[in-house]
Amino acid sequence: MIYIKMKKELLGYHLNYADIEYSSLRKNLEKAINEFSNPKSKYILQFILDRLEKVVIGSVQELIEIQNDYIKMIFQKIQMSDLAAFKDSHEKLKQIFLSAYEIFNGPGIKIDSNGLDIEWNGTTYLKKLNQLVCPYCNASFILTIDSLNHLPNGGLRAKADLDHFIPKSKYPMFAISLYNLVPSCIYCNQRFKRDHNTSFESYYSPFDPEIEEQFKIRINYEMYPKNAFKKLEELELKECTEEVRHYNNLLVKIDNYSEWNKYMITAKRFYHPCHLFYHPPPRNLPRYANTFTNG
Hints:
By secondary structure, the protein is mainly alpha-helical. The protein has 12 helices and 4 strands. The strands form 2 sheets. It has a two-stranded antiparallel ribbon. The chain has a two-stranded antiparallel sheet with strand order 3-4.
């Protein structure tokens, strides 16, 4: 793994996503807080808004602190009876932050740099960061090419993948965090790591300054009856705190809750309101349906 040193210039550009006057990200969070009626949904979004600057440009250590504080807050404030409030706030965070990331990974935003307007987006970020080899495998080139107009039928851009070191599906507020956007090759990001539940505390990030001193390679062959991914799952379960388990259970529940709602919409077609006509329910009843009907 290769250590990547973040440039202060890039942090200054990226801070525009948290700017008090102009940030659409900040305005969308404020609007969502005002629209929510449930106080616990409001509280969750306000928690992120109060830390928006650090969420956007915070260092690895600062992101660790935000993540731990967020999980602790959810553990203390949100119970299973508050599942609807958690679901609404989580989905709203996904909508707001993933939308901001799509803009950054596409056209970006125009910012002022020493009197000049520049497009601040993923391509500009990768060009200025100037990381030419995937930091994970140290094997694949990840060159950034602005244009192929000099080639027949050219015109498309080519750039590295931006891997979300902390998965944006579980922690959408980190979708736009600069220290969470690791330039990587398609093999490491989309074929190997994918949506694996990595964290700054359990895994080394290429932005972690401790890599150069503490990251050592030692090869030790050992026969193990399970595959590598199964072993990783077991290690994660051992390291998982009660607070993290609570947060993960809430995420699983809201996924099941959404599927149950889809089933109920389908089920209405099989039961007449007056119960005069009956059709047997579909055989593909979700396995977890009894969770809702029996408890």
